[in-house]
Each structure stands twice: as structure tokens, then as C-alpha cells.
Amino acid sequence: MSVFCPVDTSAYDNIEDATLWTRITTRHTHQEMVVALNTAPAVKQTFCLTHLNVILVFTVGDEDTHTQHVRTVLQMCQDNNMKANLQACVFNAPDAEKAGFRFEKVGSGDNRALIVVDLGVPPRQRRT
């Protein structure tokens, strides 16, 4: 469990309205991912969050937009010599739970946040 409290508050609406989700499980620590994200201005909180060793990409819109968001995140990973654990990734899930996540809202207005709950990779989504 972690807390997501983005600076750009439109990220809250994007999470609520997202139609496509990709879970990229890495072989790196949360701190390594934060450093990588800080060096990648193209990766925005409006379509991406990190939880432990997972990067979650969420998109409001079509599959082409989602594919571009995922490519941007994967390029950031490549630029920082980060590796994904493909066995634990989920691509193009139709909702957060199918990507292995649940969100709980806390607070309101300018004092809101999301509790991020990692449910793990759903069995049907696991790559073999």
C-alpha cells in the first residue's frame, strides 16, 4: 500500500476516468524508479504512477494514446538501464483491478489523495 498525492490534480480525474491500464513490474527499487522519473520530463503524473517496484500507466482515451504513454515510460526505463520483469507485467487492461490495483479515495478538494493497493498480478493476466 502507498499514497498517491500528485502535484497535478488532473491525475485524480485521469485515474477515475482511465479506460486502459498497463502494469510494468521492474527489477528495481522504488527509489531507483523515482530517480529515473525525475530525469524524464516526458513522463507525467497525469498518466503514470509508481508503487514499490511497479510503474502503472493509465490512459483516458484511445489505444493509440495509451500506447504512446507506455512507450514514453519504456523509453525512460531504457534510458536509465532499467529492466522489466515481463512475467509480472500486464498490458492494456480495461480497468485497474485487471492490472492488479485498487484505489481508495481519502480527503477532498486540495487535501485529497489516493491509497494505492497492489493486488498483485491477476492470474489470468500472468504471462507464462
From TrEMBL:
InterPro entries the record matches: DNA/RNA_pol_sf (IPR043502), Rev_trsase/Diguanyl_cyclase (IPR043128)
Protein name (Swiss-Prot/TrEMBL): Uncharacterized protein
